[in-house]
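Subject: sequence -> structure tokens, single chain

Hey, anyone have a minute? Need the predicted structure for the following. Not urgent.
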Amino acid sequence: MNIYTIIVFLYSYFIGSIPFGLIVTRVYLKKDIRNIGSGNIGATNVLRTGKKYLALLTLLLDVFKGYLAIYITAKYFNDFIYLSALVCLLGHIFPLWMKFKGGKGVAVYLGIILALSIKITIIFGISWLIILYVFKYSSLSSIFSTLIIFLYSLTLNDFDLSVYFFVVFVIVLYSHKENILRLKNKKENKIKF
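Reply:
Had a minute. Here:
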């Protein structure tokens, strides 16, 4: 392990672990998002406060931090791009300062793929919206869209990229384990348009 690996690891984790959902609800609502709805710090749970603009702000900030980490890495440490992408995602899901209980990682993942490839971002976005429109479950949209991106990556003949997307799919499955259980028991909350 060299100094560059450590540098990339540290800033990627730090950026990923900034809990924007918690910060936004504390600043604007004087509430702790962990005591609302599912207790998650992501945009979907912030939406449960009834404040759509705060959910949108959380979404945009979480997307931005994923994009920022990869932008920095691509510019200065391009050989470590997948390490940065993975650590940033893990930082969001397992933030040290929140006892390793963070968000589900999907918005950060969106920011990461936005920095990696516009085409992949469009495929993810369209898949997510179609699945959400049909089934009304944000969690199901996230899981299947992540799977679709992994399957698509297999057509690109880029082994490292495919490995990264497979690992992300496994992580997203893990971060949605409670949602999967609720889907199985038909207790998952639907998104209302």
